[in-house]
Structure formats: structure tokens, C-alpha cells
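A note on notation is needed here, since sequence and fold are reported together in a single record. The reader may check this reading against the record printed directly beneath this paragraph.
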Amino acid sequence: MLKAPPFNKAILDAQIKVAEIKVVADRLAELMKEVHGGSARVDIKHDAGMILITTV
């Protein structure tokens, strides 16, 4: 089995975590739509450590 260099593994791990965050935020937005109606918008700012979900 080939081993990825540590730097490449770190990048891949970070990309996986970013994708997981998006999935969880999208699910939370769906729940917000079910509770509040309307549509939901997800805004993720990784540099600020912020997830904003708005319903309108």
C-alpha cells in the first residue's frame, strides 16, 4: 500500500472535515426549514470559524 506524504495526508484530512461540516450544516438548515418554513441559506466562513444559517 502506498503511503501519502504527511503534508498530502493533512490536506486530504482537512478536505474531508470541510465536506463533513458542509453536510452537517446542510442538515441543520433542513431542520430549520422544517421548523420555521420558507427557505434556508447556509454560509460557512472557515477563516472566521463561523456557520450562519438563515431562514426567510
Summary: The chain has one domain: 15-55.
